[in-house]
Design goal:
Number of helices: 7
Oligomer: single chain
Largest sheet: 7 strands, mixed
Amino acid sequence: MRFVLASASPARLSVLRSAGIDPLVRVSGVDEDAVAAGLTDPTPPELVTALAAAKAEAVLPAVAAEEPDAVVVGCDSMLSAPDGEIVGKPGTPQAAAERWRKTAGRSGELLTGHAVVVLRGGEVVARTRGHLGTTVRFSEPTEAELDAYIATGEPLHVAGGFTLEGFGGWFIEGVDGDPSSVLGISLPLTRKLLAEVGVSVVTLWGPPVAR
């Protein structure tokens, strides 16, 4: 059975490879704004799990034709900022700077949603989804440090406008909860969801992947 990651995230890919899985990557191309607009007053956990599910479902036809026996995993993350605002990817330097000024010296909760779909013989035989929250404690970068960080382009394209494993790691004081979820894919949650659909994660492990 092949593990398929419905995400273009290099961080998610790196986490999985480090943990013994070299997934087939298939990018969903889902319009996240359209999915969100189609929901009626979703809670933050409902939103991230719905987005994760949409990404997994979007790649199913192609995966079923290519890998008829597969586990497809979709992921999404959003930050619940200290002021209660739910934010995804900033997209622009201005938005990234504004979000950092709101979170600097404070804590936010990174919400991670995952969806798992099992294919056997090209047919869907099981689905499940779930979410978890991880508290992220932000430091207070100086204006010069913040300008330099935003100039790298990194925070524009990641949930909440920060990373733990990249340039942003210099400005994270700590994490309370699952650190892998902050990198984009929660290993404990993924293992739990796989078990719910009758798949043991150890059966998906391969030889160590060189990094």
